[in-house]
Amino acid sequence: MPYIIYDLEFTVSRNTRYSSEIIDIGAVKVSEDTNGVLAVTDTFHTYVRPSNKPVLSTDTVQFTGITQKDIDAAPLFPAALTRFIEWMGAEPYYMCSWGPDDRSKLISHCRTHQLDVAWITNHNDLQQQWSRAMRKDGKFRQLGLAQALELCGIEFDGTQHRALDDAINTAKVFMHQFDQFTLEHNCAADDEGVTSKVVYSSAAQDEEKESPFGNLANLFKTKE
């Protein structure tokens, strides 16, 4: 099974009426080569145009470096998600992210756009596992990606808070410390409360919708 190491970037919102929206999806595909060595075999990237507040705030631009021009030319979430799922392929895979926020945001967006979540499968939080493995004094604390790279003796490559760069660097930690991770099998559609709240429909239909995120404002916190 290939390993999909991905990262998302969100809008930065000071208005509690609105939930943050995905504006950047980056991922790498890690597979074993003929010698059984893990290697990056493909990459994926797309910006995503927000459907609720399409004009980026100054805070968002400053935090991510993503410009309004980048966003104006980007697809809406349903179309961007279709491209992402097609890139991941039909073969069973593991999905891995640094922290729990990305999975939560994917589920919330799928709910809002009335899209299936069954593709969010075998998802693992690498940050939590790596942080627990590095616990030295019996106290648990979450380690940031930059800290994890430093502990591995790896320099950060690229720009922080850009989805593809963060995904590439997460993959470096994953491959370097592969024996430290125990990957779980799961499916978001089996989560309590998810199946009943998701109405399945085609991405083509939902691309034309501009569903508000206001009702989700208190469910998910803006990514730090």
TrEMBL record:
**Molecular-function GO term, any one:** 3'-5'-RNA exonuclease activity
Q: Which UniProt keywords apply?
A: Exonuclease, Hydrolase, Nuclease
Where in this chain does the record put each Exonuclease domain?
2-183
Which InterPro entries does this entry report, sorted A to Z?
3-5_Exoribonuclease, ERI-1_3'hExo-like, Ribonucl_H, RNaseH-like_sf, RNaseH_sf
Pfam families in the cross-refs? RNase_T (PF00929)
Query: Does the record carry Signal as a key word?
Result: no
Query: SMART domains attached here?
Result: EXOIII
Q: What protein name applies here?
A: Exonuclease
